[in-house]
Amino acid sequence: MSLTTTTHLNFRGDARAALAFYQSVFGGHLAVVTYGDAGAVRDESEADQIMWGQVQADSGFHVMAYDVPSSMDYHPGENGFFVSVRGEAVDEVSDYWEKLTAGATVVIPMGPASWATAYGMLRDRFGVVWVVDVVSEYNG
Q1: How far from chain centre, in Å, is Cα 55?
Q2: What is the mean pLDDT of the chain?
Q3: How far does the chain reach from its first CA to its final CA, in angstroms?
Q4: Is 0.90 topped by the overall pTM?
Q5: Which DSSP letter does residue 83 get?
Q6: Which of 36, 59, 31 shows the shortest CA–CA distance to 48?
Q7: Best exposed site among 5, 10, 48, 71 by fewest CB in 10 Å?
């Protein structure tokens, strides 16, 4: 098993353009899943926005990004990024999740999602937002 952390950038409608730009700079493979692809559309005008995206290059460069939906607050200087912890199995990430919840505010409880075997989001006691998930067919 392995565990990685990756910078996860948050945008409001610019994730696709930002990821394409980062790919042009660093090379690598661009992968995106829209809210429509994942069956997670809350606002039809956002169906083609990025729910999950990444650029990953052989050089080791890796960045993830998504478009914060209009139903959530978005303040670029306040929640412009997440720390993403990704594992290969639920039992691998569950222990980290439980430890991170100490004094945290859980934004999305850890559990199955339409795009991942397990997914959860929390803001730790220091104000850092963590996304903990398990690699799936969408985010391999």
Answers
A1: 12
A2: 88
A3: 14
A4: no
A5: E
A6: 36
A7: 71
